[in-house]
Amino acid sequence: MTVPGFSQTITDFWRKQFLNGDVLYSDESFTVAINPALEEDSRVMVLETSDGRVMAVLTPALVDKIDLSQQQSLSESIFRQKLIEAGVTLHGADYLFYFSKADKNAMLQENLEGDLRRLTEEDESVFFEFTSSASEQDLDDAYVELDHWAVFGSFEQNRLVSAASMYPWKKEVQIADLGVLTLTSFRGKGHARKVVRSICKYAYGQGYEPQYRCQLDNHVSTALAKAAGFTLFGKWEVISPDSTD
After folding, report:
1. What residue ranges define each of the domains in the chain, with the CATH number in brackets?
2. Which is one GO molecular function term here (predicted)?
3. Can you tell me the distance from the alpha carbon of 62 to that of 150, in angstroms, rounded to the nearest whole number?
4. Is the pLDDT of residue 155 over 80?
5. What is the pLDDT confidence band of residue 70, given thresholds at 50, 70 and 90?
6. H or E segment at 227?
7. Which residues have CB under 8 Å from 180's CB, separation 6+?
């Protein structure tokens, strides 16, 4: 699997996730692989890359459960229907955004203006005031925490109004997952874009690829990803915690 424009770190990671087992079925648009090493919470996954190709991977137990082993011809729609018939539910898909190689280089050479800085544990009271001004829904959606691996903030008149945090996503890969939150009354002023690009520059300096995820119906977050310079890599689904399989 190679999606043009993205780093080898990213494409190698997703190749390992989806093509590291035995390929059960493959054509030019759809591939299914079996991988006994999948963790319980990812025992079936589907990835549609931005070029329209779809890959699925699942455990041998799920292959047997949805009766795929004798399937001579397969398509994404047939595969999904078999999951439904077996009571296997997928969680709502996430968009996956990364920087292309060209956009990464442009960002690293950019000088960001504004009151921006990295936050530390000494900013606990400032951060508490910030989160206290946000809704529970916004806090849940953003998942921005002061004790994450890296946290950056944007200030207006000495008040923290936007923050982004990152944590290493998986042990075996140098990818850092990103969350961002801007107080409602300060949105539309460029704070989120600048704080995202600031933390991403830091991540690259530490040898990590920034990753931006959001649900498909979160149009505000999708727009921010694009405004911050990210490019859509694909749509990713995993098995739902509520699945009855």
Report:
1. 8-96 (no CATH), 100-229 (3.40.630.30)
2. acyltransferase activity, transferring groups other than amino-acyl groups
3. 38
4. yes
5. low
6. helix 219-227
7. 142, 144, 162, 163, 164, 192, 195, 196, 224
**Cβ-based neighbours of 140, under 8 Å, separated by 6 or more:** none
pTM above 0.90, yes or no: yes
pLDDT above 90 covers what percent of the chain?
78
* One-character DSSP codes across 183-201: -GGGTTSSHHHHHHHHHHH
Report the mean per-residue pLDDT for the chain. Answer: 92
What six digits make up the tokens of 35?
Answer: 């991988």
Q: What DSSP assignment string belongs to 171-184?
A: TTEEEEEEEEEE-G
What's the pLDDT score for residue 67?
83
Question: If DSSP codes are grouped into helix, strand and coil, which group holds residue 55?
Answer: strand
SS3 sequence of 78-96: HHHHHHHHCCCCECCCEEE
Write out the two tokens for 44. 């079936």
